[in-house]
Amino acid sequence: MASSSESNTRPIRLADIAKAAGVSHGTASNVFSRPEIVREEVRERVKAAAEAMGYAGPDPKGRLLRAGKVNAIGVATTEPLSYFFDDPFARAMMAGISEACDATGAGIALVSAGNQEKLAWNIQSALVDGFILFCIEGGSRLVELTRERKLPFVALELGFDDDTVSAIGVDNVAGARLAAQHLAELGHRRFAVLALPFADGSTGLVSPEKVRTALYTGTRDRLVGYFEAFSRCGVDTAGIPVYETENDEASTRAGLETIFASAEPPTAILAMSDRIAMVAIEWLAARGMAVPGDVSVVGFDGVPDAALCDPPLTTVAQPIAEIGRRAARTILDFDGTVRRETLGVELVVRASSGPPPKTA
Amino acid sequence: MASSSESNTRPIRLADIAKAAGVSHGTASNVFSRPEIVREEVRERVKAAAEAMGYAGPDPKGRLLRAGKVNAIGVATTEPLSYFFDDPFARAMMAGISEACDATGAGIALVSAGNQEKLAWNIQSALVDGFILFCIEGGSRLVELTRERKLPFVALELGFDDDTVSAIGVDNVAGARLAAQHLAELGHRRFAVLALPFADGSTGLVSPEKVRTALYTGTRDRLVGYFEAFSRCGVDTAGIPVYETENDEASTRAGLETIFASAEPPTAILAMSDRIAMVAIEWLAARGMAVPGDVSVVGFDGVPDAALCDPPLTTVAQPIAEIGRRAARTILDFDGTVRRETLGVELVVRASSGPPPKTA
DNA sequence: ACCAAAATTTGAATCGATCCAACAAAGCTG
DNA sequence: CAGCTTTGTTGGATCGATTCAAATTTTGGT
């Protein structure tokens, strides 16, 4: 039944239309991209031919090569793709990025992969005008990979110092100071810190030694902020445990076990992320400890969920959506310069923090 | 300072490297795409030249034209881009899509736009191998736009019948039946339905007339399911109000006002989405009506949030992530055929439904 | 009817790679 | 050493469009 030229035919090209309509391909191209400059009669003829032959319109693949601009920005991470839709912080960030992209009509390409090798390939072959990098972990590798593309890119939550890359972040020291000061002013004297990673793949109580050599400056800065506030408020910093988590449930719980095994457990917990803080609140509730009655908890990030948990979380709010918007604009309006921005944070006092228990 | 050839230079092409290394562009290409077939000495020479000239590696734009495959799937909607990160249903769906894409190393391109015109353009120019369409509203327009691209695409939540387009959906009639039957068996006799749109841009109580001519078959099918169960359980369907909402807070509240203004208010509400159901629960609580003490509420969709609200929502759960996975696979494994799948749903009984109050 | 100005159309060049048939060189075999 | 295989390299063709200077046709004025 099926003759060899029936369904086996390759896609119709603009040149085919031009031939069929008896015009040059230049004119055929104009019919689609600048219709106003071709004579109506010709325009109709070409359009009719296109219609008749089932032409899908100028193929963006071809146009792209000529035009150079993809009109899409890539957002990359080392986490699986679902991270963008699951993680509250990422979602808030994407909302800001989306807003900026919607405003200019740019698209968003999500880039990630199951393994390192595929990640590298996906970054090398992503069709985008620039990248926004979520540097949660393995950030330096992500930056290196992206740098090779020689496209504009901006790092978010960059955990290390490198003045050659554009980055947008927050004032971690000031934010942490705010959190610690808030608790100290409430009267707390016994603290514990649940930290983000100082380096990849390690957890547990950390020594001052480790802090000094911390790979991730974000983590280090927050710790510096906490301790600055402590000294300023006359808190004895000697016995304050700092437990390094991996910002997940398992390591946070392990940290809590360790911390509360102490003879003198803390009355206040400084968590370096809302994620950690919320796990802590849940853990404390399960142990029958009231928040903030027995233990106060202060988070960091200000994700929307923090306002919804029980009790609502006191936290250091980053302008997450604004960071996202600026990151997108940095790519969209790229001018060839390195741009490093540090935004301010804000202490949002909710119900998870209060005075220490009287008995303490 | 800056000589004219300093930073003003245009990007380095593969051909430049070839020239510099004294090989043909064919060989230069091989160095990057099939290094094993190039003699080591030559390979190193070319790589060195590339390094020296700051070559970014083969430009995907060029490769794409030749290769034809983008290795990314587009996900499109008429909502703003942030919809993908805000809406619980969309997020659950994206998680499924992400999973399938991660498994094959494919990327995801989010396609949307502020206005209709830009949407059309963005669909025409999206660099993807196929589309997954979120047909929430304006679904038919989205389908038409996409059809023109002549790429594989699959419609999700397709609100209308069209056997020529691939679609993945659920058995709405059976699901609705389950929900209504559950409430009838609990003893309820006075119902109200908060419906999804029957057509674009209208809200309010709907007549049987309108139902028959409903634009969206999904809405119609759910209603059919509800009423089938009612008759089967001997419920008098005469006075049951069916209020068409726009699946948002405002119209749902308006519907509730209308419904509860009645002399004989319902003891059970059938909501066609979890979104609507959760707004209803909130509204009832604010009015001092206990759920399920005074009024039972059953939703539809089974979004993750439904398990977390207070009280947890009884709902008809769709296999959302599975739909997403299948949609992605439909594009990734496209074989030129139209594929229409209908998946089963499941009633998940939680705390928002119970027997009607005794006094009623 | 004729010419300049304006409006259209043409076709070669370009974007940046990959593919492949043909060719060249080197290695083996009898 | 002719003949054959293996291995590596070449350069033209191709993917599908856009762009722009030059050629051509129309239009308008007199």
UniProtKB/TrEMBL annotation, chains A, B:
Alphabetical UniProt keywords: DNA-binding, Transcription, Transcription regulation
Tree of life domain: Bacteria
Keyword Transcription among record annotations: yes
Gene3D superfamilies linked to this entry: 3.40.50.2300, lambda repressor-like DNA-binding domains (1.10.260.40)
Domain HTH lacI-type: 12-67
Name of a matching Pfam family: LacI
GO molecular function: DNA-binding transcription factor activity; transcription cis-regulatory region binding
DNA-binding found in the keyword field: yes
PANTHER family xrefs: LACI-RELATED TRANSCRIPTIONAL REPRESSOR, TRANSCRIPTIONAL REGULATORY PROTEIN
Protein name: LacI family transcriptional regulator
Organism in which the protein naturally occurs: Mesorhizobium prunaredense
